[in-house]
Specification:
globular; 4 helices
């Protein structure tokens, strides 16, 4: 769902995305039909990318890019 059509919990998720990243990326829009799943997905992403780890944030991002490339996904 486009950000301008979002309401309720989805609008809150989109607002947080804009504050964090400057826009609502397509990966969020794909999950927009189920805001509770989208919220859980974002929590998992933030835990993986920002939580305690022996890997630096740069290393985690590099792994994400490599996996996306291997899967022929736009990152």
């Amino acid at each position: 769902m486009p950000p301008e059509d979002a309401s309720g919990p989805l609008a809150s998720i989109y607002d947080a995305a804009v504050k964090r990243a400057g826009k609502v990326f397509q990966i969020l829009r794909i999950q927009s039909l189920n805001p509770s799943v989208l919220r859980a997905s974002m929590q998992m992403y933030q835990s993986v990318m920002l939580g305690p780890s022996p890997l630096s944030r740069s290393e985690r991002e590099a792994i994400a890019v490599a996996v996306s490339r291997s899967n022929d996904c736009f990152y």
